[in-house]
Amino acid sequence: MPVVTVAASKGGVGKTTLAYELAAALDAVLVDLDWDSGGATRMWGYDPAAYKTAPGLDALEAGPGSPPPRPRQRPHQPALVPASPDLAASRIDDTLVADCLAAWTKAWQDRYVVVDTHPGANPLTDGAMQVADLVVVPVILGAREMDALQGMLDDYAGYRLLLVPNMVPPSPPRRFVERLATLAADIPVGPPISEHRWIRRRVRRSAVTLQPNPGKALLRAAEEFRQLAAVVEKACG
């Protein structure tokens, strides 16, 4: 099954929420390689400090020939391989990351794998991008974010990318829409995800796409994430 890596050269673009909801909509295993405390692992409700082992990090260090980590399961949330703060200091190279993810995907038969990454260039992100069937790049329509996107497109021109306008306001700035069209002349652009400010304030850990008894706002947001998941599925064949 395909590996979908969600990556961005700049933080604060909604990468983790996008990865979380994509994994939920695709019934995928979410592999968290973002060691920051505000990532998908804490969003899911897993506190690495409460455990003596680090499933994802330990499996990476053991190599692709060792048993894969067992994803954590909870109702209304994506299956998770949690991150560890120690990933920041690890010396795992990009080739090992790519080999491990490829091996884990074979072991998790019939499951998509969605990888959330740390912003910017680092061996963990590079390895996750190398093995990906598709790299999903969230795009904020802002000046600094578009500058960062341009640099990322220059650096990863040979990768199979899908740009996703994210946190799009009701009236997006025209100049940035036009700039995105210029930058993405030869790159597919997915359906936009609207600016749902309430998502950042949510206390519930359930994915928007899996939450039972959703209200109107949740239904609208869930439909956008499902439309994106359908485009990802089609792009992955």
Short key terms for the protein model shown above:
alpha/beta; six-stranded parallel beta sheet; 6 strands; globular
Shape: globular
Structural class: alpha/beta
Q: How can the largest sheet be summarized?
A: 6 strands, parallel
Radius of gyration: 17 Å
**Poorly predicted sequence stretches spanning 5 or more consecutive residues:** none
Return the CATH architecture.
Answer: 3-Layer(aba) Sandwich
- In the sheet with the most strands, the strands line up as 3-2-4-1-5-6
CATH topology: Rossmann fold
Q: Distance between termini?
A: 10 Å
- The sequence of SSEs as H and E is EHEHHEHEHEHEHH
Beta-strand residue percentage:
5-15%
**CATH level 1 class label:** Alpha Beta
Helix proportion of residues, in percent?
25-40%
Q: What value does the average pLDDT take?
A: 94
Strand count: 6
Give the number of domains.
1
Say which CATH homologous superfamily is assigned: P-loop containing nucleotide triphosphate hydrolases
Helices, by number, come to 8
Describe what this molecule looks like in 3D.
By secondary structure, the protein is of the alpha/beta class. It has one domain: Rossmann fold (3-Layer(aba) Sandwich). Helices cover 38% and strands 11% of the residues. The chain has helices spanning 15-25, 40-44, 55-62, 94-107, 123-131, 143-155, 174-183, 216-236, and strands spanning 3-6, 29-32, 79-81, 113-116, 134-139, 161-165. Helix 1 (15-25) packs across helix 8 (216-236) and helix 4 (94-107) packs across helix 5 (123-131).
